[in-house]
Amino acid sequence: MKNQIQLITYIDRLGCKNIQGLQQMLNNELKDIFGGVHILPFFHPYDGEDAGFDPINHQQIDPRLGNWEDLKALSDEVDIMADLIVNHISAQSAEFEDYLQKGGKSEYAPLFLSYNTVFPNGASENDLLSIYRPRPGFPFTNVKFQDGTNKLIWTTFTSNQIDIDIASKLGINYLEGILDKFQEAGVTIIRLDAAGYSVKKQGTSCFMIDETFTFIEELTKKAKAKGIAVLVEIHSYYKTQIEISKKVDYVYDFALPVLVLDTLFNKNTKSLKKWLDISPRNTITVLDTHDGIGIVDVGSENGKLGLIEDEILDKIVNKVHSNSNFESVKATGKAASNLDLYQVNCSYFDALGKDENAYLMARAIQFFVPGIPQVYYVGLFAGENDMVLLKNTNVGRSINRHHYTKEEIKKSIEKPLFKKLKELMLMRNTHKAFDGEFHLIKTDTHIFNVQWTNKTHKAALYIDLNKMSMETTFLS
């Protein structure tokens, strides 16, 4: 992956109708801004219940978006990241429908996880209560088969997302088949979606257990053998991220978004600097994504201190709510149909109270800390909360998944904030200092000063939080 800023986007929400349209956008309106693009699920269907994360066929590009040849043409110009959804498959898939019709006689029966698969002798109360949950309730759906029998099928997220047995021969072949397809299309990096939930074992939390690490490590080896790097997507306690980073090519720095909010809200760099002293360097940095702003990534866990004290974290969340005129409250937790109760759903621009100066500082921090920056398409335009889409879908994440028209994009790229952001992005992409060494300068807590040096090349960021002023320096 190039050490340049990466775009993360849906194809159909960036003023494009298909992969060819995205290619044209990157070659025109967004020329030179991105070294690569993470295309959010483009599989059939890309517009399912979970916006493509519930694929009926993971090896088929939705015909409305194009085909594998189109993706290969795009990969010849920029790095392509694609999602490998390792935990589940759609209930409408041919494999699961065959299982419903034939039950245990289906050739695909071993592909799917049921209650009995994990608890062959039944589960104790403690077994069930120990399961880590991203949503309320137990991870099972009562499914009726064609012969009239019922069975509890494991569904970590929704009843339309059927968990697969990644340890079975069918599960192994299923994932390797997707890797082969990606390799042919020139995909250079994959994001393991929902990998933390992929292994279930009685007597454990069924989340990021030892066997999960082993699975991730083995799958990473298979991908790298095909020339594909691996990014692991895990929202979890910060020390877990550090451990994962030792076994894969890249991890997300999901702690950064809230740490930046803490820095700007409280005019205090203490927690951010603490993290930068210990954070993994093989990271993809983000401020916003297609999901919400992760809280669990900086919080405490089972009495263990997090990166930010719980009381301060609560105040940060409340500040986001007030800054967004409490629009985020309508999209978070039980207020809407949410998969994740550990995230706040809000555009990052709204989280900062639409303060353009603060927003530019936040992006500057992202671009100057270690890691490869990834910018979400809504964040690229400093997009605001889409309350109409939220109302229409009642899905909390929709608040930050706006469908841009080409006209909206034309207006956005003419705004002064976009032009300032673009200038900063181009420097991040081209200045040789960012290929050198990172230095966190010791300063008072209201000052954030970092530098990159590479022989005679130097890039520096200096922020005075008391004055809310920022200075960047680039020398060659």
Mean pLDDT: 95
Q: Main β-sheet: number of strands, strand sense, barrel status?
A: 8 strands, parallel, barrel
The name of the CATH superfamily of the largest domain reads: Glycosidases
Catalogue the unreliable spans. none
Number of helices: 17
Oligomer: single chain
What report would you give on this structure?
With 476 residues, the protein is α/β, with parallel strands linked by helices. The protein has 2 domains: 6-86 and 168-435, Alpha-Beta Barrel (TIM Barrel), CATH 3.20.20.80; 94-163, Alpha-Beta Complex (Oligo-1,6-glucosidase, domain 2). The chain contains 17 helices and 20 strands. The chain has helices spanning 19-27, 68-75, 94-102, 115-118, 125-129, 169-184, 210-225, 238-245, 256-266, 270-278, 310-323, 348-351, 356-368, 377-380, 387-393, 406-412, 416-430; strands at residues 6-9, 36-39, 43-44, 57-61, 79-85, 88-90, 140-144, 150-154, 161-163, 189-193, 229-232, 250-253, 283-285, 293-294, 343-344, 372-376, 437-440, 447-454, 457-464, 469-475. The strands form 6 sheets. Strands 1-2-5-10-11-12-13-16 form an 8-stranded parallel beta barrel, surrounded by 4 helices. Strands 17-18-19-20 form a 4-stranded antiparallel β-sheet, covered by helices on one side. The mean pLDDT is 95.
